[in-house]
Amino acid sequence: MNKMYKAHINEETNTVQTVKEHSENTARLCAESAVSPLKDVMYTMGLLHDIGKYQNSFQQRIDGKKIRVEHSICGAIEAKKYYPDAVGLMMEYCIAGHHSGIPDGGVHNDTPDMHTLCGRLNRTTEDYSAYQEELSLPPIDRQALISFFMQDCGRDPSLLIDKFAFLTRYCFSCLTDADSLDTAAFCGEHMSGKLKVDFQRCLEKTNRFLDSFECRTNLQKSRSYLQKQVFEKTEQDAEIYLMNMPTGSGKTLCSVKFALERVVRKKKKRIIYVIPYNSIIDQTAEVLEKVFGESAEILRHQSTFSYENADCDEDCRQAAKHASENWDAPFIITTAVQFFESVYADKRGRLRKLHNMADSILVFDEAHLMPVEYLQPCLRAIAYITKYLNSEAVFLTATMPDFADLMKHYALPESSMLHLITDTTLFAEFRKCRYLYLGEVQEETLLHHAGEYPSSLLIVNRRATARKLYRMCSGRKYHLSTYMTSLDRKRVLQEIREELQYLEEEFPDGRDVPKDRRITIISTSLIEAGVDMDVHTVFRELTGLDSILQAGGRCNREGKRRDAAVYIFELADGGKKTSTDERGNMVKGMLDRYEDLSCQESIAEYYDRLFRMKSEEIQKNTITQECSHIQSVPFQSYAEKFEIIDSKILSLVVSQDEKSTELVEKLRYAGTGVERELQPYSCSLYRWELDELIRQHAASDFGTGIYCLTNPDYYDKDTGILFEATDYLVE
Fold first, then answer.
1. Contact 363, 271 (CB under 8 A)
2. Over the stretch 615-625, which tens digit does the pLDDT of each residue have?
3. CA distances to 493, 594, 663 from 591, in Å
């Protein structure tokens, strides 16, 4: 009688899943989830991934013997033996890392104690050849696969390495998700259903919502005309669509309708809506939930949102929690950080999402905010997903760089791209304010100038400046910065909107507003991208043109006022000019050449100069800067360095109510499990700022790595984290 080789034991049901069963199930799931050119290699990878469990020592371990057995390397050894080329190498990376993460390639003389692929392949294993009696490896058309690898790479070896690395991560995603799903199914873990979306019904509701808007004024007619240009192109195929629409033209709902049209027409699996900041996901999600109603269960995957607190039933909550692990959901709203750091991860916990970016419509809101220092990896990821994984992408922004040129130079030269807006003559209808340069001003002068208007928004470049101006300001004032917790920022934004509405109702013409009713809002740039707010006048400290124009989107948003203005200023500090970065200096040089800074010519010149100046920075963080051959791709090292958000910025939890106090206590004594629930109570600090609080015994991580404020006197709900206790602050 043949020996039974066990892969898993279900303790509750006292049943056994054999290695053969698990391997064949995983192989089938791998092939089902993979794009056509990779189905055969994924089936083989699924068969090989756990053959190390045929070792006698592993069988002793699964029967209860407390020994450590490495089983992942065995499949990689067999892949190297039977497929001694790029196809086999891809399998080696994936199989060797399917538990611990894709390793760095290393070099051939790496010793067995090293964690590189080469080092691990030099390790000694027990006999696992019994797999050959139970599993049959199918033939693979390796030449066809190698041709697929080389497609679109031309004679550029760095592009070939980069594409190979992407496809390896994609295959790893297919393998680890299939492995996890089959194991969970055997163990009875995933009993909940999936999130559901009726795309056709959502499209119908979106159409009705858009049709409900009046179309009488010139602005409304212009908005309708721009949206019509987009909707007329829903039948045209492309890999990447460029949706350049000015602020106030209804970009969000326009992009959602376009995505729904494409997902229905092309029978795609999902829509993934990618937003640059956590701070504006709530607003977008609320709009979509209002429009879709019960026709869509939207997965929100962001660091500041927890389904433990979500207003939904338990089945939906459990389905969402499971879907957030691998993005197996029809409609996802997430952040650019989650999206791109998942693409370039090395661990299964994050990379499991990558294969479910296939067969999707990807919408990148505020696409111009992709970080310059990671622009090439971001653009290449989008190019690969759209060209090789059967997806489509929409780039949405009011300040559109020349993405066609950027894709050609930094991603794939032959990406198919389509401009959805071809007639921009009506953009002028959306210019609701003038951009005027004040020059250098003293802080007192700036505040006095702002106080002359019914409502003013002052946006500065530094949090310390925002706090200082807020303390100097009198009257009805508000402050926003990431020194405040997201909970307090959300509260303050709601208070501002309500106060602005009261002001509009009481003084609709904006005249004769008493001084004590005038509103001054002082903020950092967090308010610029997508925050729905309408003030009379904006003051923006000199910075990049994209930020200045985003700030302008908060000024006279509804176009009701004439002669609205955005004042660009530099702060004079005791006669010493405030330093500006190179982007601000570029804008300063453009002020005399353009009567209207928001015109398309100005935007085009700004981005052309910026990207020419930043060409080295754009390319510095590609994975090919660190290797010259597919055998030595540094998957792990690169993933650890890939950080869209500066790692010098850390989170600090602030207890603000009974719930947060209980969560902090759980963290103190349990050590983990409440991280996501604590996100709304977190503010952002630089490392040196956190060190100062620790030095003053005002913050501690209780040994968990998650820092919490331990002295409430170091936090103010209106200005955020303090660096001296309130008892010692002198106003």
1. yes
2. 999 999 999 98
3. 31, 6, 51
